[in-house]
Amino acid sequence: MNKTIAVIRGDGIGPEIVNEAIGVLDAVAKKFGHGFSYQEAPMGGCAIDSFGVPLPDSSLETCLNADSVLLGAVGGPKWDAQPSANRPERGLLKLRSAMGLYTNVRPARMFSDLAAACPLRSDIAARGIDFVVVRELIGGLYFGEHTTFEADGEQKAADVCSYSEHEVRRVARVAFDMARKRRGRVTSVDKANVLDTSRLWRRTVEEVAKDYPDVELLHMYVDNAAMQIVRDPSQFDVIVTENLFGDILSDEASQITGSIGMIPSSSMGEGTRGLYEPIHGSAPDIAGQDKANPIGTILAAAMMLRYSFDMAAEADAVESAVDQALKAGLRCGDILNGDGKLLGCKAMGAEIRARI
Ligand code: IPM
Ligand code: MG
């Protein structure tokens, strides 16, 4: 099969980790007889430097015309002084919205070989961590009107949060479908004791649940959810929640698995084209030093193979190559423990490639 992949290297460690993911995709193409071609789509701070905007139209076109999109990470202190409408992150938000990617899926699974890196008490970790955060990605506070203004002799600011029923319904369906293929439990997270958007969220999720009598539905307030994720993560199967809550809870969920550097994510809308990225940021403090962990991005490429290209065997091959590298004691700095062998970004990529 021939596929065109738009590649957004981005900023900080983005280019290094994307290189290793492409190396792994090339190894897959060779082994399984596919042809992957890559088209560069500059986005983020680097695009501000060269084009003056975080997401040039040409990059958006490249992404919209590709079969799928692979992204490293965007942003960094260099662009902190940009006006808020021209920050690197705005490029990412515009891309998510223009591609209609309303569902973001972030698995939180503890690799058994990394149990020692889990920051939770060992009796809690022993119960296992294997759940998925399904985050609504193109609504809510992120996409409401943002204003900063002068009133009563001081500066004020406002960000509008709104949701429509159809926006809740479509992401809820994804969560219920996913729970059916897993352990059959959806936990919908909201703040319905305070927010109208949350009350609409809860009502709509309950309506969708009627089509899934075989799936158990629980509701949880977001503050309680943040606490339960560290108290007993084994209670969760699929968490579904709105944009900002999902942003926060998915960072928490990834960290309890041992390292945020290991976790991939997929963003999808209707159809098979998606955006695949690690959930960590651009880590400017270690950029260009060959210290980054490429595994999150490599596993994101595996998700692309599975969900956008329907290449399950190929995705399995990548995931098992990562497992084998971990079993062999190979570690990047963020997951180094005990007598593991420390590798840089390039060497880790090469070791995983060699196991495809
Ligand atoms: C994420 C990131 C982004 C978000 C930023 C970079 C805009 O934190 O993908 O979780 O908040 O969605
Ligand atoms: Mg985030």
What's the short story on this structure?
The protein has 356 residues and is α/β, with parallel strands linked by helices. The protein has helices at 14-32, 45-51, 57-65, 88-98, 122-125, 165-181, 196-209, 222-231, 243-256, 295-308, 312-327, 345-354, and strands at residues 2-10, 35-40, 68-73, 103-109, 130-136, 146-151, 154-159, 185-190, 216-221, 238-241, 264-268, 274-278, 330-331, 341-342.
Descriptive labels:
ten-stranded mixed beta sheet, binds magnesium ion, alpha/beta, binds 3-isopropylmalic acid, 356 residues, 14 strands, single chain, globular, two-stranded antiparallel ribbon
Binned, the helix content reads: 40-55%
- Provide the structure class: alpha/beta
Average pLDDT level: 96
Number of helices: 12
Main beta-sheet annotation: 10 strands, mixed
Small molecules bound:
3-isopropylmalic acid, magnesium ion
Strand order of the largest sheet: 2-1-3-12-11-4-5-10-8-9
Write down how many β-strands occur, each being a DSSP E stretch of 2 or more residues.
Answer: 14
Radius of gyration over all CA atoms, rounded: 20 Å
- First-residue to last-residue Cα separation: 18 Å
Give the overall shape, derived from the CA principal axes: globular
Instruction: Tell me the β content.
Output: 15-25%
What are the secondary-structure elements, in order, as H or E? Answer: EHEHHEHEHEEEHEHEHEHEEHHEEH
Low-confidence stretches: none
Layout of helices and strands:
Elements (H helix, E strand, L loop, with lengths): L1 E9 L3 H19 L2 E6 L4 H7 L5 H9 L2 E6 L14 H11 L4 E7 L12 H4 L4 E7 L9 E6 L2 E6 L5 H17 L3 E6 L5 H14 L6 E6 H10 L6 E4 L1 H14 L7 E5 L5 E5 L16 H14 L3 H16 L2 E2 L9 E2 L2 H10 L2
